[in-house]
Amino acid sequence: MYLIERYIMGETRRSVTIIVGFLTFIFASYSTQRYLTDAANGIISLQAVFYIVFYKVLIALEMLLPVGLYVSVAIALGQLHSDSEVIAILASGCSPLKLYKAILYLAIPVGILVTVLSMYARPWAYSQIYQLKQQSQSELDTRHLQAKKFNLNDSGRMILAEKIDSTTQMLTDVLIYTPSVGKTYVFRARSMQVTDPSQTTPSVMFHAGTAYELDHQGSADNGQTYNNFNLHPKPARQETEVKSKAASNSELSRASDPAYKAELQWRESRGISAILMALLAISLSRTKPRQGRFSTLLPLAIVFTIIFYAGNISRTLVANHTLPTFPGVWLVPLLMLISLLILLAREFSLLQKLRR
């Protein structure tokens, strides 16, 4: 490896380390605050918070690494352009390909790491998160319920009780609100015994209370008074998107569901997209003389926003069967490659004109 490549790699690598570290810290802090709030509200257990944050950070690295590399290339080469070092490199007879070669030395390992994270670490982390939530987020597990507070789950079911005894699984002066399609169910009881707190077969026994079935159209409301009432709440179902994110690559490849195919294409394309983003940043980082190294950050931010939203939209369209699976999610990396080739052709065309 020549001196120029090592110099450019060194400048870029330092920026990558700082930016990715900073973004990871910000994301981890935000996730910790979010899940600590859920723990305070009784939605999940406190012990699960830090495990979930770790898994969330592992998932986020799939996005943070390409972003860090993209911004680092832009800043490092922007500084070289601002200090006229790129002009000096080209004036010495070096080809512009040296810039791309130097960035590729760094982008390829990052792309491989992103691919490994996306293909293996991300689905594993999602499966661990779902298992933790199933173990600690049971809405009927009295160890995680708090008295005199609205205990909510992801489906909107709310439990409010004056007193909660975790030893006997007994709730006193309890109110349960359960929304559903077209109807809302409200249960009011002097006491409630949790007979089965599991998420798969939940079961409770109400004592001395009233049950209301409220029709959203207001035409079929119903109310019942009871002494003892055994209720089996509808267990929470895992959505297709949730299942696909935690599924293994072999499961995704065998599945016929478009959502699974979209997820597989998303995983396979992350590493290539990271490399293409870094190469695009080389052309987009070029500045005019006496311009600051941050003068290109706005167009770079716009390009990144377009790539980010286009990737998510294409995945959603494939999952909804609106966009065919070929090219599917690969449409965005394909457009990035075409854009890169156009920028390269333009760059070498300008260079040839300057040398004449």
TrEMBL record:
UniProt region (Disordered), positions on chain: 230-250
UniProt keyword terms in alphabetical order: Cell inner membrane, Cell membrane, Membrane, Transmembrane, Transmembrane helix, Transport
Top-level lineage group: Bacteria
Compartment(s) where it occurs, according to its Swiss-Prot or TrEMBL record: Cell inner membrane
The keyword Transport belongs to this UniProt entry's keyword annotation: yes
Membrane topology: Multi-pass membrane protein
Name of the protein described by the UniProt record: Lipopolysaccharide export system permease protein LptF
Species in which this protein is naturally found: Rahnella woolbedingensis
Lineage of source species: Bacteria, Pseudomonadati, Pseudomonadota, Gammaproteobacteria, Enterobacterales
Gene name as annotated: lptF
